[in-house]
Amino acid sequence: xxxRIYLDNNATTPCDPRVVDAMIPWFYQHPGNAASRNxxxxxxxxxxxxxxxxxxxxxxxxDSKEIIFTSGATESNNLALKGVYEMYSRKGxxxxxxxxxxxxxxxxxxxxxxxxxxxxxxxVRNDGLIDLAxxxxxxxxxxxxxxxxxxxxxxxxxxxxKAIGEICAKHGILFMSDATQAVGKIKTHxxxxxxxxxxxxxxxxxxxxxxxxxxVSRKSxxxxxxxxxxxxxxxxxxxxxxxxxxxxxxxxxxxxIAMKEMEQxxxxxxxxxxxxxxxxLQNVEEVYxxxxxxxRMPHVTNLSFKHVEGEGLMMTFNQEIALSSGSACTSASxxxxxxxxxLGLGDDLAxxxxxxxxxxxxxxxxxxxxxxxxxxxxNHMRELSPIWEMYKEGVDLSQVEWSEH
Amino acid sequence: MAYSNKVMxxxxxxxxxxxxxxxxKNVGTGLVGAPECGDVMRLQIQxxxxxxxxxxxxxxxxGCGSAIASSSLATEWLKGKSIDEALTIDNMDIVEELALPPxxxxxxxxxxxxxxxAIKDYQAKNNIAVEANEQVA
Lengths: 405, 137
Fold this sequence. Notes:
The complex is a heterodimer of chains A (405) and B (137). Chain A has 405 residues and is an alpha/beta fold. Chain A is 39% helix and 13% strand. Chain A has 12 helices and 13 strands. Chain A has helices at residues 17-23, 40-60, 73-87, 103-114, 132-138, 161-171, 245-283, 310-315, 338-342, 347-351, 364-384, 386-392; strands spanning 5-6, 67-70, 94-98, 118-122, 143-147, 174-178, 197-201, 212-216, 287-289, 300-305, 321-322, 324-325, 353-357. Chain A has a 7-stranded mixed sheet, sandwiched between helices. In chain A, strands 9-10-13-12 form a 4-stranded antiparallel sheet. Chain A has a two-stranded parallel ribbon with strand order 1-11. Chain A starts with a strand and ends in a 13-residue tail after the last helix. With 137 residues, chain B is of the alpha+beta class. In chain B, helix 1 packs across helix 2 (65-78), helix 2 packs across helix 5 (105-125) and helix 4 crosses helix 5 (105-125). Classes of the chains: A alpha/beta (405), B alpha+beta (137). The A-B interface holds A 307-309, 311-312, 315, 327-329, 332, 334, 336, 346-348, 351, 383-389, 397, 400, 402-405 and B 3, 11, 14, 17, 19, 31-42, 60-65, 67-68, 103, 106, 109-110, 113, 117.
């Protein structure tokens, strides 16, 4: 088989083989329903779920009773936002979030607006960070919650969670975070930072797909959310539905491994990421890093290769190298990445972007090969690019009258 | 999204990439699209003044694989055609030839626009009445 290199770990991570091994017995040997109270099949399933709950709570520095299992981060975000909106409707109806959030948050907020809620969408600065003064200024008497993602999926930019937590505490409002890209990769202890609700998923931390968690603070304050799924009253009444025991066991194992290994993973991956980024910055003309380089996940870099279109560029290597682009042509909507546009990038640079997200199984020789192949690809595409030729001839592209279509 | 073999072939081996002298009287240049939209095509034709046929065509394209394939195919089709014949090239011919999916039809539209723009530029340079040809189109 041809060589295949996977640098799309922000889309999903491979399931760690140790996680797969832990899951296997829970499909056939131990088939019980964790809610069956009257026989050993049920008891052992419940025990396995409780053990996973402990493993995940340990990773978060949380109490195991604060872990609510869901089907994934999208469901967790829906439950947190809609659940708080409904539960706290007597206190207010205003939620503050950010324009660069994942669609699972933005579209849920749009739905809340339709339900009668009021949502403020904060801008970000050019480096992807929010302006804390702007956040504080947006808080009103009817504000019930602030929802800010821990780390951005496209740029890897990490928001100042501690400062946001302090602002929320000062004003007595709830703080929720979509921490999907951060959990298991950097330290994420919600209580320390004043986070009351936090969502994440198994399949971005080397666990299985189809399982997620909503962390819900149990003390000071004790937070409640209105269930969005009606049924048997599982998960302390917050999320009905038979627990996905094998996946939960897997997510628990993934949390345990992350706790032991994330520091060394992060140190290794940030070196490889820097090697990759610096190689392009030094050897290829007109390359730009998108987002703040200091406050950023260790395994992510988002680069724009000016005057080359991202999807076309990917076609030069995508038989062997998997990654993502903010180019419109890679999306169904034909719009370039709204996250990069929110950074003030300009549509032309957004169309030219590639997101590299490394992972636990990325090797140094992969990075060397990627540098070589993508440099070749960029040079090839620039040979084909009329705007690269114009740029090289000294034409001011902003003065050209383009025929928009 | 998987591309058709023909798109892959044009992408891997683009025909007629390059630049003709845009100041030459017998060269027509069409530049269409915009960087903000993620597609810019530059298509050039060189017309033999004795025969009136397009003797050379070149392109450069900033865009996705379908945009590059559409413009590459357009240059292939243009060579050897008269201006009037070139004006009959329809974007749907390109869609069909390359088996472009619906979301990529705009790439073929852009290629047709580029052909028309290059011809218009050639005609303007040579004081050929444009209106007569627009009726043909």
